[in-house]
Amino acid sequence: MAEDYDVILFNNKKEAEDLLEKSRNRIDEIDNELIDLISQRTSLAKDIVLAKDFLGIPIYDGSREEEIHKKIRRLSEEKGLDADIIDQIIDMLTTLSKTEQNKILRRNVDGKY
């Protein structure tokens, strides 16, 4: 990704300030979209854990996580992103999902689902 940018030559301070503001606004929009996507991803934990519980499958599925990491590393490399950093982000997302699944499973055992 870093190789895909053009060098911008500004004619004046206002052009640089305008681009900075526009870019920051777009980052804010993307951050909001990312939070929405993470929320959607995490909300699937209930469906996943209830199906796993019924099927007798443990919450942690090493082969599934390995598949995810391989796919993410490939996609990261295709986009020119640092695969190690993206891998860490995916680790955090899978941890979030497993944490949510554990909470749901405990509630299910307590008779709340």
Structural class, by secondary structure, is: mainly alpha
User: What general outline do the C-alpha atoms trace?
Assistant: elongated
Radius of gyration: 20 Å
Specify the biggest β-sheet.
none
Helix residue percentage: over 70%
Note the total helix count: 4
Topology:
Blueprint: H1 13-43, H2 45-55, H3 62-79, H4 83-109
Task: Summarize the structure in words.
The chain is mostly helical. It has four helices and no strands. Helix 2 crosses helix 4 and helix 3 packs antiparallel against helix 4. The longest helix has 31 residues.
Summarize the structure.
This protein is an all-alpha fold.
List keywords for this structure.
mainly alpha; 4 helices
